[in-house]
Design goal:
By secondary structure, this protein is of the alpha/beta class. It has ten helices and eight strands. The chain is 49% helix and 14% strand.
Length: 264
């Protein structure tokens, strides 16, 4: 899709909505004059760094003006969307809100349910999505253009897969941060100063994430390589493999997925 096709974002001044808006503007997926943002205040100053963005408090105004509408409001507020977007492509990144519910709230038939994160601003989000039966090939191209501006994207087979990704890759990298916190805590028990422990672990995760993102090996292959190297890391990995940590992580993910499926 080109910068002259109108895109609307309902909830475009929240953390995630603004991140997606900035990604679309900065990477020229949409021009400022063709971007519509709806929020409760309609504050015109919200996009001073992108003059020309259309601000409104009316969801219907967005539906009337735009070809593609992104829904980025809290799931608890989903019912308040209330618009007639029957002839539009509607893309939702609201956790736990089903395609069927989205059709009820928007009157749309062409619906894409997705997940993303505020890392979209830096082009680092992962945004999986699935489509309703009425979504066209052109709609799919539009979704890919939007989400590639935010980072990486894939179409997945079902809403159940979106729910899994919602739990794993939600707006805050909670599971990764939890593991990092455990490493920082361990370092502190060994007498390492908290600021140094935090600095070291932050850099470790930055380096590891970059290597896994840009390299060809899978995470499993990285683990196997380290074990085969038979060094200090191998000793730690082998001990973890003998523990219940993998099952415990799965339990945590199961709980997050269950919450995703009930939140809508």
């Amino acid at each position: 899709m080109g910068p002259d096709r109108a895109i609307g974002i309902v909830g475009g001044t929240g953390m995630l909505g603004r991140a997606i808006a900035d990604a679309l503007l900065d990477r020229q997926v949409v021009s400022a004059r063709q971007l519509w943002v709806a929020n409760r205040s309609g504050a015109e100053g919200a996009f001073d760094d992108h003059p020309g963005v259309n601000m409104t408090t009316s969801h219907q105004a967005v539906a009337d003006a735009c070809d593609v509408i992104l829904l980025v409001v809290p799931p608890a507020s989903a019912a308040s969307i209330a618009m007639d977007a029957s002839e539009r492509l509607v893309i939702s990144v609201m956790a736990g809100v089903s395609i069927a519910q989205l059709g009820t709230f928007t009157c749309a038939r062409r619906i894409i349910r997705a997940m993303s994160s505020p890392a979209a601003r830096e082009g680092l989000a992962y945004s999986p999505w699935c489509a309703s039966d009425d979504v066209t090939a052109g709609d799919r191209k539009s979704a890919v253009a939007i989400f590639e501006a935010c980072g990486l994207t894939d179409e997945v087979e079902s809403e159940a897969h979106i729910e899994c990704f919602t739990a794993m890759t939600g707006p805050v990298p909670g599971f990764v941060a939890f593991y990092a916190k455990a490493m920082v805590d361990y370092a502190e028990t060994q007498g390492i100063a908290p600021d140094i422990a935090n600095r070291a672990v932050r850099q470790l995760f930055l380096g590891a994430g970059t290597l896994m993102s840009t390299g060809t090996m899978t995470p499993a292959e990285h683990v196997t390589q380290m074990i085969n190297y038979a060094g200090t890391t191998a000793a730690g990995l082998q001990e973890m493999d003998r523990s219940s940590i993998t099952k415990d992580i799965a339990k945590g993910l199961d709980a997050a997925v269950a919450r995703t499926r009930s939140i809508g």
